[in-house]
Amino acid sequence: MPPSPFLVLSIYLLNFLILSASKPLTKPIISSPNSTHFSKKIEGFAESTRNSIKLESLQRSQVILSGNKTIFSENRTFQLGFFTRGRNVRCYLGIGYASIPTPTYVWVANRENPIKNLSSATAEISENGKLVVVDQDSRTILWETSNVEKASDLKLLEQGNLVLLNEGKIVWQSFDFPTDTWLPGMNLTTKQWLTSWKSSSDPAPGRYSVRLNPPYYGEIALVYSNVSVGNSDSNSYTYWTTGKWNGNSFDGVPEMTIPYIYKFEFVNPFTPMAVFGYTEVSIDKGVKPPLTRFVVDHTGQLKQFTWSFQTEYWNMFWSQPENPCRVYGLCGNLGLCSGGPSSPCKCLNGFRPVNDVSWNESDFSEGCHLEGDGTCGENKGFKEVGVVSYEGPKVVSFSASRSKCESECLSNCSCVGLLHNVRSNLCKNLYGSLFNIWNLTLDSTIDDKLYVKVQRNSTGKKNKKKMAVFIGMICGILVILSVGTINLLYLRRRKIKRRKGDDDGVFPVTNLRVFSYKELHAVTGGFSEKLGHGGFGAVFRGELSDSSLVAVKRLERPGGGEKEFRAELIGRDYSRVLATMRGTWGYVAPEWISGVAITTKADVYSYGMTLLELLGGRRNVEGPPSAGGGGSGDSGTEKWFFPPWAARQLIAGNVTAVVDERLSSTYDKAEAERVGLVAVWCIQDDESMRPTMGMVVKMLEGVVEVAVPPPPKLIQALVSGDSFRGVGDRVSHRDAPGSSDDNVLTSIDLKDSQSSL
Length: 757
Description:
The structure is a single chain. This protein is α+β, with helices and mostly antiparallel strands. The protein folds into 4 domains: about 25-225 and about 240-320, Bulb-type lectin domain (Agglutinin, subunit A), CATH 2.90.10; about 335-460, no CATH class; about 515-570, Phosphorylase Kinase, domain 1, CATH 3.30.200; about 585-750, Transferase(Phosphotransferase), domain 1. Helix content is about 25%, strand content about 25%. The strands form 10 sheets. Strands 2-1-4-5-6-7 form a 6-stranded antiparallel sheet, with no helix packed on it. Strands 29-35-32-33-31 form a 5-stranded antiparallel sheet, covered by helices on one side. A hairpin with a 5-residue loop joins strand 37 (about 535-545) and strand 38 (about 550-555). The longest helix is centred in the middle third of the chain and has 43 residues, at about 460-500. The protein is extended, with a radius of gyration of 38 Å.
């Protein structure tokens, strides 16, 4: 019996629904935004959504993108489209953020073969099922995917991954071919790594890459290459690594010991390929993590960014190497690294950039070359650079004077410069390329000075002499005018003082009657009745016109009036009010006392002390009970030095006891606890346990979870007088808080001082 038509139709519909449900990804959206840049604010997408075209499948030789059209991910976090960069308006197909106003690109397809005109740029699915970038003017394929199986569908995932599918199976994905950005969910392997842009405006492959470091691939490395990355490792140089992965963090990245906003995962290299990836960790449940990305910058630094929707700005969370001058080959051959944020490189005197256009676009890799005649002749001299660090050249050392050293270098055209040590009379001639020149003038342990070969220019010397004479004349005139002006002001001030009778240095008063010498002579009867004699003069009895009796002291030497007045007013017991000490010891990190090297973590300690004062609404030191400033009872005994007491309360979870009582219940307890725990982290005894200021900002913003810190034992030991790891031997008791040393600034109550006086 033949099957019922209704049964056949039901089976067909059921199969259709099963196939539709088996598709793991949503369909792409094609739209036509008006902006030439495809990164726009979300509110700008409303109009384009109405004109969107949903694709059920991709036909062969079908144009999917052209001009300003874009494809969005499901929640409009990312979008695929063409963008332009550079002075020549070069056009690229790439993926960028769609939900932020700042154009930021995380993947570029045709980075080595840009299209000249945006109007002729198209992205198509070819007859063999590959995604291709085509220049319509020349009908040239500039880039294509490497999939073997034909693609029947194209989708942009919410993670920023562009995938080609065949019946729901991924046959190609952009995450397998990263450019300069490492996104959450993307993996680094032994065969795929990040490659920097050539410059800030040129996405072409640069000289820097982020790779898994062989042989065990348990660490991430920054690598410099002289050739195209991936073709050869013969000219590669590793200049920074994360250190080995220990299962939880990298040994060379101590910041990861604090609760991190990323979860890294490492697959053992023997199964069968090493894979390293990371995902975002949401601090608050139900709250979407912030946008984040790792980027190998064109300057050779690995940087980590998070997006702030409040400031609409990418915050640099972390970067390595911290000093850009430690990036290998950053300034190229004969380029001097100055470390500036906008332009870290400059050419030595007598040199100029090899490529001015690239140099202006922050691509310094081609370095510098000699100005003037580049031929090897006798018209060469040497220019002193100073004490520097360098890499790259072949060095020939011998003992000789500087003149002999220069003669040897001038006789060889491949000699670029020399190093000479005056003390040892050692000469080092340098041949070939001179990379990583970095000024070390402040390092007194190095005596070798660098001299580079330059072009002699007699006209330039004459001009320099004329300029020196002119500058000398101007400086001389300015000095004469300055000295004359200072003398006139001094004489004028002295004349005014004489008129006012202020030559003895007595400080001025405003509401007291001033007597002349003639009046005092009459009041005392010609200084006839002497009452006594002091260190500065004799005291005489006098009677004013209103019959008031007074004592008049006649000074026997000039300049003693103010000194004597202060001595009699203040007294010997209160001399400490005039003895002050520079600096604020309450905020100083323990490293200052112990005499070890000071780092930026010393400022973190001071910031932690300030946070505690802000949280408690009081000074950290308010005087022990014996001095009358600590209150009464056990609570006053413990709380006179606030930091150790507050740290114990915060670690125990008693944040209410620490917060300023005047706030009552108007504060957020969770925020107050976060601020308190961050402060305790900042005042840790071991500086390596203190977070960086960048990490402090993230913890205060709530981006990074704040764990409970260990109690800082050193400040507690200083308060109790106990020794802590030898600190008691290095820090005398007079340096501890509450000491009665005369050098320590002591505050005196005004009322008590007045009554004593």
